[in-house]
Amino acid sequence: MNQSLNKLLATFNDVLSDSVETTQLHTQLEESMMYSLQAGGKRVRPLLLLATLNMLRPNDYQKGLETAIALEMVHTYSLIHDDLPAMDNDDLRRGKPTNHKVYGEWLAILAGDALLTKAFECISNDTSLSAETRVKLISALSIASGHKGMVGGQTLDMQSESKAVALPVLEQIHLHKTGALIRFAIEAATIIAEIEKNDQQQLVEFANHLGIIFQIKDDLLDLFGTTEALGKQTGSDDVNDKSTYVTLLGREQAEAILARHVEEAEHILSTLAETYDTEDLDYLLKLFYQRQN
Predict the structure, then answer these.
(1) For residue 213, with 0-12 CB atoms within 10 Å meaning exposed, 13-18 middle and 19 or more buried, which class applies?
(2) Are residues 221 and 228 in contact, defined by beta-carbon separation less than 8 angstroms?
(3) CATH number for position 160
(4) Percentage above 90 pLDDT, the chain
């Protein structure tokens, strides 16, 4: 990772480590929340938010830190719930036992619930942003997280198990389940930076490509990666009888679609590079499609 992104990541992790304060209730809830928040991972969503904001408003990325924390909390809650026996029933996440394997199912559910609600507290209490900006961010994150976004996509994914799924349905699943929070990361940066509409539209389109790139790569790694590299069991899509880009189209065609979205994302960045320094977004794009875990 380059020096600029390393700086953003280090700053983010410092703030994240203090993001869940203890209470007087003397429960394991906060411990369970922090267990999953600090379980590792590449932090691609908060990094995408902070890098985009830093590109749009150089050296002003601090204004996005609380929103980036909120985004990571929503993402982490979704992983905790996704790993539960009622859904994907996974034992490993990022090379560690999943939350419910360590704390039990009921506490894992509550830790996810708490992270989701804590996310909106982080944004609403961020006095570095105007009240109007905070309302816009809360609205955007609500849409990205809820029935119109990630949860809606997860629902469509679950009800599509063991069924023959057409490609347009699969695209809708991942545009919402995976793409919604990636799209929010960039949209949030444009809201905070208050940029013109044309640049905002180009960046959101770039985010849409990123979401599809991330998912196709995920599908490929699930079939052709290793548990050691991924930090979670491979073959889980097959076990759960899920349709993926690879099972639907085959490896060669899935890789061809991946390459097309990479090319279109690179074209958008080349256009934006006439106005902005896109080095960090170029790096993150490569991270999305070259990753091995």
Answers:
(1) buried
(2) no
(3) 1.10.600.10
(4) 81
State the pLDDT confidence band at 115, using cuts at 50, 70 and 90.
very high
Q: How far is CA 276 from the centre of its chain?
A: 24
Binning pLDDT at 50, 70 and 90, where does residue 288 land? very high
**pLDDT digits over 68-98, tens only?**
999 999 999 999 999 999 998 999 998 899 9
Please compute the mean of the pLDDT values over residues 139-160 and round it to a whole number.
Answer: 96
3-state secondary structure the chain: CCHHHHHHHHHHHHHHHCCCCCCCCCCCHHHHHHHHHCCCCCCHHHHHHHHHHHHHCCCCHHHHHHHHHHHHHHHHHHHHHHCCCCCCCCCEECCEECHHHHHCHHHHHHHHHHHHHHHHHHHHCCCCCCHHHHHHHHHHHHHHHCCCCHHHHHHHHHHCCCCCCCHHHHHHHHHHHCHHHHHHHHHHHHHHHCCCHHHHHHHHHHHHHHHHHHHHHHHHHHHHCCHHHHCCCCCHHHHCCCCCHHHHHCHHHHHHHHHHHHHHHHHHHHHHCCCCCCHHHHHHHHHHHHCCC
Would you say the pTM of this structure is higher than 0.90? Answer: yes
Question: Would you place residue 230 in the very low, low, confident or very high pLDDT band (cuts 50, 70, 90)?
Answer: low
* Mean pLDDT, residues 124-148 taken together: 98
Q: Helix axis angle, 150-159 relative to 131-145, nearest 10°?
A: 0
- The number of domains in the chain is 1
Structural domain range at position 17: 3-290
CA separation for the pair 264, 247 (Å, rounded) = 24
